[in-house]
Amino acid sequence: MLKARVIPCLLLKGGGGLVKTKKFSSPNYIGDPINAVKIYNEKEVDELMFLDITASKERRGPNFEYLKDIASECFIPLCYGGGITSVDEIRKLLRIGIEKVSINSANFTTPNLIADAAKLFGSSTVVGSIDVKQNFFRKLRVFNSSKRDTTKLDPVDFAKSLENQGAGEILINSVDRDGMLSGYDFELIKKITDAVNVPVIACGGASGLDDIQRVVKYAGASAAAAGSIFVYQGGNKGVLINYPNYQQLEKILN
Amino acid sequence: MNICIIDYGLGNSGSIQNMLKRIGFRSVISNEPEVIETADLLFLPGVGSFDDGMTNLEQLNLIPILEKKVLEQKTPIIGICLGMQLLLAGSEEGTKAGLGWIKGTCKKFNFKKTPERLRVPHMGWNLTTPAQTAQNFFSTDLPELRYYFVHSYYAVLEDEADELCSTSYGFKFSSGIQRDNIIGLQFHPEKSHKFGMSLLKNLVNNLISVKS
């Protein structure tokens, strides 16, 4: 049986190391990504996701050299997102050992990128990534994080449109829950998993295994991604790269 | 021993090279006939669409040298993911003919009319059962065999005897195929940590000793 994936979502600031944010702000330095990858290899994680959170904002592409060093240490599936605007960049990322690319900001500036990439590299290589934030009227809307702009787009409709363009997977990141340990946005994730046929990765708000279990069992997510709980320990927020063991995950997910 | 990973512009050749290095085998990534000529073992990687894969192999004029190596000299070859699918005669994904070295074609998963409505692509870790004849490639030390899958199309073999291993996703399908020196794996051993390391080590050791 296919097991739901549990994915550490790690944030990069260009070549400047790993950081963890709260509500997409105040990045806190965590450490060296290669060291983290080595630990996650040992812990046999299901998959790793690296997002470069400043690439699009600084209008630069992926930091290939840095990513190559990270990928060469990674014997588990690796997804990268951040600053990707062309199929040539995707080709280069696949070549250095990255399996999947996450497309987010380019959905506002280069609307054909997902379709072009899916045609060339197959849908299963392309993750359509959506940041979601409450607007002034407390409605959930698609957030354009590189512009810090809450758009008028409905996240469920947007997820469907990315699927139609060819995204083989949808990543939903809840901005207001990022780093807050307040639980996933279970209702939103459920609406999206009901609306699309491709796998959905939930991200933002995980506080522990209970949230992971609920987002998979109740909300129908194919994968649960999390940052804080896999890079910090307990309440005191000391940095500790960690991951549940397979028996623990099997117990909550089967 | 020379291991060559075929570079045809589609695929995660770097990941395969990294994993081989990790388990103690040097390899080269190349599309030059002189380099491919000297290989004792070939890898055909592939992330992408079927027609683009065949088009790239044709444009780089790789098919004659591959046929010479694989069909005449019986050099072992391991196709991974799209690389496995290209070993078959064709795919629903495209209109081009595949290499056709193993009899069968690729079909697309479609669960829209089933009660479970399983998602496509089939993405993540799934269990694999080796065929009786393939036991020596798969470790018996591991309690179960789990590998990482990312695909929307699956192999439908004409001859069941060509199945190397099988996996269930909605139904049982051939997740590994083999005919003599030609092997294909739908999953990614190079990204399946200890499970992949063990399988690749066994494959390389067995295939190379069988040949020499």
From TrEMBL, chain A:
Transmembrane segments: none
Function description: IGPS catalyzes the conversion of PRFAR and glutamine to IGP, AICAR and glutamate. The HisF subunit catalyzes the cyclization activity that produces IGP and AICAR from PRFAR using the ammonia provided by the HisH subunit.
GO biological-process terms attached to the record: L-histidine biosynthetic process
Matches recorded under Pfam families: His_biosynth
Family statement drawn from the similarity comment of this UniProt entry: Belongs to the HisA/HisF family.
Keywords: Amino-acid biosynthesis, Histidine biosynthesis, Lyase
Signal peptide bounds: none
Alphabetical list of SUPFAM superfamilies matching this protein: Ribulose-phoshate binding barrel (SSF51366)
GO molecular function, one term: lyase activity
Catalytic activity as recorded in UniProt: 5-[(5-phospho-1-deoxy-D-ribulos-1-ylimino)methylamino]-1-(5-phospho-beta-D-ribosyl)imidazole-4-carboxamide + L-glutamine = D-erythro-1-(imidazol-4-yl)glycerol 3-phosphate + 5-amino-1-(5-phospho-beta-D-ribosyl)imidazole-4-carboxamide + L-glutamate + H(+)
Protein's UniProt keywords contain Amino-acid biosynthesis: yes
Subunit and partners: Heterodimer of HisH and HisF.
EC number(s) recorded for this UniProt protein: 4.3.2.10
Name of this chain's protein: imidazole glycerol-phosphate synthase
Pathway membership, UniProt: Amino-acid biosynthesis; L-histidine biosynthesis; L-histidine from 5-phospho-alpha-D-ribose 1-diphosphate: step 5/9
Species assigned in the record: Pontibacter lucknowensis
Record PANTHER family: IMIDAZOLE GLYCEROL PHOSPHATE SYNTHASE HISHF (PTHR21235:SF2), IMIDAZOLE GLYCEROL PHOSPHATE SYNTHASE SUBUNIT HISF/H IGP SYNTHASE SUBUNIT HISF/H (PTHR21235)
UniProtKB/TrEMBL annotation, chain B:
Domain of life: Bacteria
EC code: 4.3.2.10, 3.5.1.2
GO cellular component terms listed in the entry, alphabetical order: cytoplasm
InterPro entries, per the entry: Class_I_gatase-like (IPR029062), GATASE (IPR017926), Imidazole-glycPsynth_HisH (IPR010139)
Residues annotated as domain Glutamine amidotransferase: 5-203
Biological processes per GO annotation: L-histidine biosynthetic process
PROSITE patterns assigned to the protein according to its UniProt record, in alphabetical order: GATASE_TYPE_1
Pfam families in UniProt: GATase (PF00117)
Biological pathway: Amino-acid biosynthesis; L-histidine biosynthesis; L-histidine from 5-phospho-alpha-D-ribose 1-diphosphate: step 5/9
Subcellular location: Cytoplasm
Principal cellular location given in the protein's record: cytoplasm
NCBIfam families: IMP_synth_hisH
Self-association and partners: Heterodimer of HisH and HisF.
Protein name: Imidazole glycerol phosphate synthase subunit HisH
Protein source organism: Pontibacter lucknowensis
